[in-house]
Amino acid sequence: MSSPHQPLSRPETRPLPERVYAPDREPFLVVLHCDDDILVVDKPSGLLTVPGKDPALADCVAARALSLHPQSRIVHRLDMDTSGVLVLAMNPAAHRHLGLQFERRHVAKTYLARVAGRMAEDSGTVDLPLRCDWPNRPRQMVDQQEGRSAITHWRVLERERDATRVQLEPVTGRSHQLRVHMCAIGHPILGDPLYGDSESQQAAARLQLHAKSLTLHHPSGGEHKTFSAPSPF
Questions:
Q1: Do 117 and 178 reside in the same domain of the chain?
Q2: Is 197 one of the catalytic residues?
Q3: Lower CB density within 10 Å: C or N end of the chain?
Q4: Which reaction is catalysed here (predicted)?
Q5: Exposed, middle or buried, 145 (CB in 10 Å: 0-12/13-18/19+)?
Q6: Is 14 inside any structural domain?
């Protein structure tokens, strides 16, 4: 089922908000699962997955994991403002195995989000290609000619007075995909500092987007495993 909403080719652009990077140090690293092949953590909102170029952006999931497990390696990323399930590899073989699963879309990711407005339909699919909005980096934008394929399935979980709680299942893994797709159909994710309008941005203290679950094949034996983290909002 395709979304009935008219997509916008470019989200409203405003100067990027000035922010001081100061992620909480406690809890230091919430571990959901750990074995010889994988380390699964619950990343908090406000913490980078990997370090930024500025030394002030050195604190991140990768650095914290390395301090506890020197053999750990990042496999995929979550946006700084997104919380939830993140898997790391504990050896080179597992890193290759997991990397191929993500590359070949053999993993299943489920997100929870609260978006602005009451969505009229119960479910839908957003199929809008995306590319970087270069003059406004790191923002991304819809581009039907030069964008890369991006597909998101969504389903309403609960309608609030002025918002909707939805489950999002990305088929592809483009940068900011869920954030741009929801904004493009007129329902920006609440608390998003990059997309939407001032009202939706100020409606929540943090981005209301959480990676609830991740399903993958375990690198040793191929067992189908699902890891989940409770929503903090």
A1: yes
A2: no
A3: N
A4: uridine(32) in tRNA = pseudouridine(32) in tRNA; uridine(746) in 23S rRNA = pseudouridine(746) in 23S rRNA; a uridine in RNA = a pseudouridine in RNA
A5: exposed
A6: no
pTM for the structure as a whole: 0.91
Residues 68 and 119 in one domain: no
- 123 and 69 in one domain? no
- Work out how many domains the chain is built from and give that number: 2
- In order, the DSSP letters of 26-90 are SSS--EEEE-SSEEEEEEPTT-BSS--SSGGG--BHHHHHHHH-TT-EE-S---TT-EEEEEEES
**One domain, residues 121 and 175:** yes
Q: Please pick, among 79, 81, 133, 192, the residue that the annotation labels catalytic.
A: 79
Separation between Cα atoms, residue 184 and residue 192, nearest integer Å = 13
**pLDDT at res. 3:** 44
pLDDT in tens, 115-172: 999 999 999 999 999 999 999 999 999 999 999 999 999 999 999 999 999 999 999 9
The answer to whether 81 and 192 have CB atoms below 8 angstroms apart is yes
Give the Cα separation of 229 and 214 in Å (integer). Answer: 9
Buried residues in 29-66 as b, exposed as e (16+ CB within 10 A) = beeeebeebbbbbbbbbbbbbeeeeeeeeebbbbebbe
Residues 206 and 223 in one domain: no
Q: Which backbone phi and psi does 41 adopt, to 5 degrees?
A: -125, 165
Task: Please state, rounded to an integer, the average pLDDT across all residues of the chain.
Answer: 94
CATH number of residue 38's parent domain = 3.30.2350.10
Tell me, yes or no, whether 2 lies in a domain. no
Q: Is position 129 within any domain?
A: yes
SS3 58: coil
CB atoms within 10 A of CB 178: 27
| Residue 3 counted as domain residue | no
